């Protein structure tokens, strides 16, 4: 993923307890609720952006779980994808994946990057947002492996970012 100069400088000035956390919001009409998880050992509260697809502008709890993934290169590839492996979700998410995939309705992902202070347990700054649809999913007893990407990359804006005063206060 390509970082802006402001993001590079912000991360360089952050103290040792401020780290980058990725929050995953997975949505489908057959899920009993929106699945919100974060790659952290504890639950984290994050404020969603004003343009969020669901619960815009509210603070939501993201459940800490083990997630393995490679950040999407939003500025380097015309059709970026993100592959995620979510561990320990056998009872919370796995029962809903198969019926959701069979429904033909896309499973949606919003991936958000946040600077998070682990000592104070609070959000410092929201960084990036990536919206995508599930392309493929594999499950086993304890893990879901899924690939998310744009359904039609040709309809996406370049460079796949929305610049507004909320996500980029320096523009105001």
Helices and strands: which structural class? mainly beta
State the share of residues found in helices, binned by percent. 10-25%
Mean pLDDT over all positions: 80
Number of strands: 9
- Could you give the order of the helices and strands? HEEEEEEHEEE
Basic shape:
globular
For the largest sheet, list the strands in their spatial order: 3-4-2-1-7-8-9-6-5
Determine the N-to-C terminus distance: 25 Å
Q: Catalogue the unreliable spans.
A: none
Provide a descriptive summary of the structure in words.
The chain has 172 residues and is mostly beta strands. The protein has one domain (5-166). Helices cover 10% and strands 41% of the residues. The chain has two helices and nine strands. Strands 3-4-2-1-7-8-9-6-5 form a nine-stranded mixed beta sheet, covered by helices on one side. Strand 1 (18-27) and strand 2 form a beta hairpin.
In short:
By secondary structure, the chain is mainly β.
List the topology elements.
Blueprint: H1 5-13, E1 18-27, E2 35-39, E3 44-47, E4 59-65, E5 67-69, E6 81-87, H2 94-102, E7 108-117, E8 122-139, E9 143-149
Parallel strand pairs: 2-4
Antiparallel strand pairs: 1-2, 1-7, 3-4, 5-6, 6-9, 7-8, 8-9
């Amino acid at each position: 993923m390509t970082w802006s100069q402001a993001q590079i400088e912000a991360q360089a000035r952050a103290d040792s307890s401020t780290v980058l956390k990725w929050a995953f919001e997975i949505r489908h009409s057959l899920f009993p609720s929106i699945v919100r998880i974060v790659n952290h050992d504890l639950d984290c509260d994050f404020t969603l952006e004003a343009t969020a697809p669901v619960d815009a502008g509210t603070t939501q709890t993201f459940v800490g779980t083990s997630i393995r993934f490679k950040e999407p290169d939003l500025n380097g590839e015309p059709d970026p994808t993100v592959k995620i492996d979510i561990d320990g979700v056998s009872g919370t998410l796995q029962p809903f994946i198969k019926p959701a995939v069979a429904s033909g309705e896309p499973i949606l992902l919003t991936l958000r990057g946040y600077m998070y202070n682990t000592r104070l347990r609070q959000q410092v700054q929201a960084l990036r947002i990536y919206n995508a649809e599930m392309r493929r999913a594999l499950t086993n007893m304890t893990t879901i492996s899924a690939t998310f990407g744009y359904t039609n990359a040709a309809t996406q804006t370049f460079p796949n970012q929305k610049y507004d005063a909320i996500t980029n206060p320096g523009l105001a």
